[in-house]
Amino acid sequence: MGNRRGAGGVRIADVAAAAGVAPMTVSRVINTPDRVTADTAAKVRAVIVRLGYVPNLIAGGLSSRRSRMIAAIVPTIAHPMFTALFDSFTEALRGAGYQAMLSLSGYAPEREEELVRALLGRRPDAILLTGAEHGAATRQMLAEAAIPVVEIFDAGKPIDMLVGFDHEAIGVAVAEYFLVRGHARFAVFAAGDARALARRRGFAARVALAGGVLIGDPIVAAPSTIAAGRAALRALLPMLGERAALFCSSDLLAFGAIVEARAHGVDVPGGLGVCGFGDFELGAASEPAFTTVTVEAARIGREAASMLLARLQGTAVERGVVQVPFRIVERAST
Amino acid sequence: MGNRRGAGGVRIADVAAAAGVAPMTVSRVINTPDRVTADTAAKVRAVIVRLGYVPNLIAGGLSSRRSRMIAAIVPTIAHPMFTALFDSFTEALRGAGYQAMLSLSGYAPEREEELVRALLGRRPDAILLTGAEHGAATRQMLAEAAIPVVEIFDAGKPIDMLVGFDHEAIGVAVAEYFLVRGHARFAVFAAGDARALARRRGFAARVALAGGVLIGDPIVAAPSTIAAGRAALRALLPMLGERAALFCSSDLLAFGAIVEARAHGVDVPGGLGVCGFGDFELGAASEPAFTTVTVEAARIGREAASMLLARLQGTAVERGVVQVPFRIVERAST
DNA sequence: TTGAAAGCGCTAACAA
DNA sequence: TTGTTAGCGCTTTCAA
Question: Which of residues 40-99 of B touch strand C (CB under 7 A)?
C-alpha cells in the first residue's frame, strides 16, 4: 500500500512528533483539555498553531462514532420562519460544539425519504424534521439509525420528540377572532402544504359551526407568494359583499390580498378584514400594517436544539413534547 | 478492545456475508456498478434492501479521501438572493452526487475564519465563499487545504475561482440611469456590508462626477430591513426638495422608503424616484411596483457548482472568473 | 470480474 | 497524567 496521504495534510502524528508527545495526548489537548497538564497543553497548542493543524473530524467521527453533526430538514429557507428557526437552531448547537447540516425538502413529501437516507449516510448524531407526517420507509430508517429525532412546527404523536404548535387550533382561533367582531362572511387562502391545510381546516370548521358563510377557500401552490395572494383576491372579488373576513396561510398571501383589494377600491379593514400568518416584517412595516398570527420560530429552534442536546448528553431519556404558544397580533387590517 | 459497534448498525461486511461476496464487491455495486456483473449487482442490491443497509459515508470518506461534500458560507439566508443561490447550488451538486453544507457568517467578517476552520475539519472536497475579501488566516488555511475554492457575488482577484458581478459598476449604472432622466439631487441608503458599500461608492462617485448634489448617504445595519428604509427616508425628508433620486442597497430598504415617502405625502416617482436592488418579489408585486437592479442569483449558484465540479472531475484546471450580468428593471417608482 | 490485504486519521480502552 | 494498542467501516491497491 503506497502513500495515500493528500497534499498539505498535517496529521495528529505530525503534531505529536513535533511536540514530543503521543498522538493521544494531542487528541486530549483538543478534546478533553482538562485531562492534560497546562504545560503539555500549551506546548502542544503552540505546535498546532505553528503547523496549521486542522483536526480531521471525519477520522475522529469514525473512531468515536460521534459526528458532532445534526441533520435538519426543512421545506424551504425562503420563508422568514424557517430562516429564524435555522439561525437559532444553529446557534444553540454551535455553543455545544455541534454543527447543523441543512437540507431542503421543498414541500415534496416524497423527497424527504431520499434526503433522510442521504443524511443518515453521514451518521448525524441526531436529526430534525419539519412536520409530523412521514413515510413508513423514513420512520423505518430513523428507527434503525437509533438517534434522537425531533419533529418541529406541528402537533401530533411524535416519532421521538416534538416542539411545535397546533395548526388547526390556530385556524379556530382566527375564526373566533373574526366572529367576535361580527363578521358573517369568511374566506381563507391556504398554500397546499399539510400544515397550511390544517390551519384552513380549523378555520373552516369553526366558521361552519357558527353558521358563517364561507365565500371562498382556494388552495394555492406552496411556497406562497404575494402574486398568488393578489390573484386569489381578484378571483374572490365577486363574492366579497360586505364586511368579509379573510384568513391567509402566509403573510405574503395577506399582503398580496390587501394590495389587490385596495387596487380595486375595497377598503381594508372596512370592506374586508385580513389576517395573515407568520408575522413577517412586511406585516408590521407596510401600510396599512396588518393583523397576523405570530409564533416564536426562533424559540422552536432553540427548544429543538436543547432537547436534542439533552438527549445526546444523556441528561434526558424520556420523550418530550413541547407546545409553543401562538398569538394573534392585531394591526390595522382588522 | 471490546465491541465498539453501535446498535442497529448494518455494515458492508454484513451485506457481503449475506450475499456471499466480498465486502469490496458490495462497495463496487454501490459506487462503480459497471465493474460488476448484472447478476452480482442484483443479488447484492436485494440484500442491501432487505437489511436496510445505509453505507457509512464517514468511513468511505476517510478511506477514499473524498467526502462528496462541498462547504458553502453565505452571510444570511434571510435574503431572497442567497436563498435562490443556495437552492440552485444545492440542486446542481445533487445531480453529481455531492452535498452542500451550509454555514452562515452573518455579515461578521471575523466569524468567517472560525467557520472555515470548522468546515475544513470535515474535509469538504471544495468550498464556496461569499465575497472576495478574506482574512490572511482564512487564505492560509484554504491554501493548505488544497481544495477548489469559488468566491461569489463579488468582483476582484479571486483566491481560485470567482463568479459574481461588479458592485461599483452597478452603483455607476444606477446613477447614470437617474442622470439621464434629469435628476440633480441624489441620495443612497446602503447596508454596512462590503458589497453594499461598493454599490454606494460607485453611485456617489458617478453623481459627483456629473456635478450632482448628494443630499444623503446613510449607512444602515446589515441585514437590511423595511423599517430601516422607513427610518432613513424620514431622516432624509427635510433635504428632499424636488425630483430627488434614491438608490437603496436592498429592495427592503426601497420598499420602506416608498411606504414612508407616501405616508408623508411625497409622490413616488413624481417627487422622489426610487431604485432598489435584488429584484425581490416585493418589488414587482407591491403597489407601486418599483424599479430595481436584478442579478441572476440562481445562475451564480449553478455556475459556481459547475466550476467546482469541473475541477473535481479533472475537467478544468485553470482559474476561472465568470462575470454575471446585471440589469435595471424599470417599474413605476422611477 | 472478484477477492485479500492494508491503511485512511483518529479515539476508546487499557496499561503504566 | 501520559502512552500503547487496536480498531471505527470503508476503499485503494494489487493479485488472481
Answer: 40, 59, 62-63, 65
Cell numbers 460488476 correspond to: B36
- CA A87 – CA A62 distance, rounded (Å): 28
Q: Which of A90, A102, A252 has the most B C-beta neighbours within 10 Å, making it the best mutation to test the interface with B? A: A102
Distance between CA atoms of residues B225 and B255, nearest Å: 9
**Separation between Cα atoms, residue A107 and residue A250, nearest integer Å:** 15
Q: Which of residues 18-37 of B touch strand C (CB under 7 A)?
A: 21-25, 28, 35-37
In whole angstroms, how far apart are CA B330 and each of A223, A227, A308, B83, B290?
Answer: 26, 18, 49, 23, 7
pTM of the model: 0.94
Closest residue (CA to C1') to nucleotide C2 in the complex: B25
**Alpha-carbon distance B59 to nearest alpha carbon in chain A (angstroms):** 6
Residue of B55, B77, B226 with shortest CB distance to A77: B77
Q: 3-state SS of B285-306?
A: HCCCCCEEEEECHHHHHHHHHH
CA–CA gap between residue A31 and residue A25 (Å, rounded): 10
Interface test with A, best of B48, B57, B81 (most A CBs within 10 A): B57
Residues A256, A233 contacting (CB under 8 angstroms) = yes
- List strand residue ranges (DSSP E) for chain B, in order: 69-74, 99-104, 126-130, 149-152, 161-164, 185-191, 213-216, 219-220, 244-248, 272-275, 292-295, 321-323, 326-329
Q: Is there a contact between A238 and A264 (Cβ–Cβ < 8 Å)?
A: no
pLDDT at A157: 92
> Where do the CATH 1.10.260.40 domains begin and end in chain A?
12-63
Helix (H, G, I), strand (E, B) or coil at A220: strand
Contact A285 B77 (CB under 8 A): no
Q: What is the pLDDT of residues B270-313, one digit of tens each?
A: 999 999 999 999 999 999 999 999 999 999 999 999 999 999 98
* In contact, A218 and A191? CB cutoff 8 Å: no
Which has the closest alpha carbon to B235: B251, B219, B223, B212? B219
Indicate the pLDDT class of residue B9, thresholds 50, 70 and 90: confident
Given the candidates 3.90.1200.10, 3.40.50.10860, 3.40.50.2300, 3.40.50.10540, the CATH classification of the domain at A66-165+297-325 is: 3.40.50.2300
Helix axes A167-180 and A194-209, enclosed angle (nearest 10):
40
pLDDT tens figures, A55-71: 999 999 999 999 999 99
Pick the CATH number of A167-295 from 3.40.190.10, 2.120.10.30, 3.50.50.60, 3.40.50.2300: 3.40.50.2300
